[in-house]
């Protein structure tokens, strides 16, 4: 297959991937670029420079890394040997020790004089500053270069600011693409269309017509081989500070004036700034931390977190978080937002559940007033929207029962769904910033999350154990029950 050049990208593209021999490159970035290549979404004159520390030749990289590691992550149905060969031809490998400025000269030789440069930093964030300094010193950057920063961007507010300040010395804000791959998911983008492409939701999308919002991202996977990273990160930093808070923003934001990057990001920022700060007493009452213990997931016995490789025996890292958040603004006054995420849970599911208000008064004698309408937006594994309505039970008499309107997007729209990374990489190549985080957004999210981390330290208690394969600690259900609510699977 041949590639086409998008009108906005006449210049040759040099995509430079730091961490080119790393786990993310193998599992996500290279398969995403392969799919973009196969579907003719890379500019015609594209080159991909993989940067790594190993003393490899180009051929070593293609064989040891691309063939033997990355290729297996491409969907077998989408794989085409001819297209793969053409894809491999786009690659070069440059060995660079990031700490050694001299090595960047080798990279400077490898980029083409007039190319549009996209620098993807898929390394530990502690290296971002050195990479940017050395790139600049080697004359590789110009005013049109773009840099993609992988999460986690910092460990707390101060470290996030330090990274932003340092990167900001070499790139202007509009050159910086802070990636949160949830924003690249088709279903998450669809959430914006659901809200702002359907007039019927507008009047109801606020207090007092909405009683509560639940956002759940549950995973069945454990920490796997990532304990070194995960154990000093934990679920709050790994999932809540970015993915769940971004989902919350899209559910809660005011309609932006357009889809322009700043129009959307201004509205998300307002949500983040309106989050009610939590005191230590709030944290003790409104947050639940958990850590999985041995159990079974999908019928298979699995270890507890503390038994996983490279986890310290006394680790306090949380693998589960549930919390109740409030947004202090007119639209959402007194509407609780329940956020929950965890590893080794019963199923893999990301969903947003909107519970609408109770009937003000029921004329149907045996109809409980709180048998409410519920909108369930499932983001993964399947992509669907369900609306629970009340209907009359067939037969004589007026009895009601809940029934569900079910919209299955796979059935309704058969087009190919690109993976999040593919969509976001194409956005970077085309210079579209809407689905990336702006500096002030990232820092506002940290400003809300950091007191929770500090509060947990001050409270000094351990995360509560939950058996792998369940929905988390009992305290998570109690958090809901206190307000006469229940998580979707318990209702
Ligand atoms: C990543 C986290 O950002 O998202 C992982 O670091 C997590 O811990 C992953 O497993 C979940 O992403 P997805 O797309 O599988 O829901």
Automatic annotation (TrEMBL):
Substrate binds at residues 181, 185, 219, 238, 343. Its EC number is 1.1.1.49. The keyword NADP applies. It is an enzyme of class 1 (oxidoreductase). GO terms for cellular component: cytosol. Keywords: Carbohydrate metabolism, Glucose metabolism, NADP, Oxidoreductase. GO terms for molecular function: glucose-6-phosphate dehydrogenase activity; NADP binding. Residues 192-487 form the Glucose-6-phosphate dehydrogenase C-terminal domain. PANTHER family: GLUCOSE-6-PHOSPHATE 1-DEHYDROGENASE, GLUCOSE-6-PHOSPHATE 1-DEHYDROGENASE G6PD. This is Glucose-6-phosphate 1-dehydrogenase. It comes from Caballeronia insecticola.
């Amino acid at each position: 297959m041949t590639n086409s050049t998008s009108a906005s990208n006449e210049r040759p593209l040099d995509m430079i991937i730091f961490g080119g021999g790393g786990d993310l490159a193998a599992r996500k970035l290279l398969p995403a670029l392969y799919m973009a290549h196969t579907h003719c979404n890379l500019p015609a004159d594209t080159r991909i420079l993989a940067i790594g520390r190993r003393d490899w030749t180009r051929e070593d990289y293609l064989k040891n890394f691309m063939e033997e590691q990355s290729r297996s992550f491409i969907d077998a149905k989408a794989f085409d040997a001819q297209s793969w060969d053409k894809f491999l031809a786009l690659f070069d490998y440059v060995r660079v020790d990031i700490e050694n400025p001299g090595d960047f000269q080798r990279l400077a030789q490898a980029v083409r004089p007039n190319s549009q440069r996209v620098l993807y930093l898929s390394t530990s964030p502690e290296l971002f500053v050195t990479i940017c300094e050395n790139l600049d010193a080697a004359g590789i950057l110009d005013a049109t270069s773009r840099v993609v920063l992988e999460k986690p961007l910092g460990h707390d507010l101060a470290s996030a600011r330090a990274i932003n300040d340092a990167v900001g010395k070499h790139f202007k804000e509009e050159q910086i693409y802070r990636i949160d791959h949830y924003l690249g998911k088709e279903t998450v983008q669809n959430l914006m269309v659901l809200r702002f492409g359907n007039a019927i939701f507008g009047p109801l999308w606020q207090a007092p017509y909405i009683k509560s919002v639940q956002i759940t991202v549950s995973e069945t996977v454990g920490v796997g081989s990532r304990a070194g990273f995960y154990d000093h990160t934990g679920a709050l930093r790994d999932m809540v500070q970015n993915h769940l808070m971004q989902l919350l923003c899209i559910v809660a934001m005011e309609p932006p004036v357009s889809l322009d990057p700043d129009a959307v990001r201004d509205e998300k920022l307002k949500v983040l700034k309106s989050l009610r700060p939590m005191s230590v007493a709030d944290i003790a009452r409104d947050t639940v931390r958990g850590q999985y213990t041995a159990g079974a997931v999908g019928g298979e016995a699995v270890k507890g977190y503390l038994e996983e490789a490279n986890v310290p025996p006394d680790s306090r890292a949380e693998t589960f978080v549930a919390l109740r958040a409030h947004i202090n603004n007119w639209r959402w006054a007194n509407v609780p937002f329940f956020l929950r995420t965890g590893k080794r849970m019963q199923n893999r599911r990301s969903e947003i559940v909107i519970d609408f208000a109770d009937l003000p008064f029921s004329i149907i004698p045996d109809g409980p007033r709180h048998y409410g309408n519920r909108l369930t937006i499932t983001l993964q594994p399947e992509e669907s929207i369900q609306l629970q309505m009340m209907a009359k039970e067939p037969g004589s008499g007026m009895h009601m029962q809940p029934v569900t309107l079910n919209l299955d997007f796979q059935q309704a729209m058969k087009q190919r769904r690109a993976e999040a990374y593919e969509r976001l990489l194409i956005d970077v190549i085309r210079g579209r910033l809407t689905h990336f985080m702006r500096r002030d957004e990232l820092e506002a999210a940290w400003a809300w999350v950091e007191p929770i981390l500090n509060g947990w330290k001050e409270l000094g208690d351990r995360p509560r154990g939950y058996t792998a394969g369940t929905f988390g600690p009992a305290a998570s259900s109690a958090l809901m029950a206190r307000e006469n609510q229940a998580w979707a699977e318990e209702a």
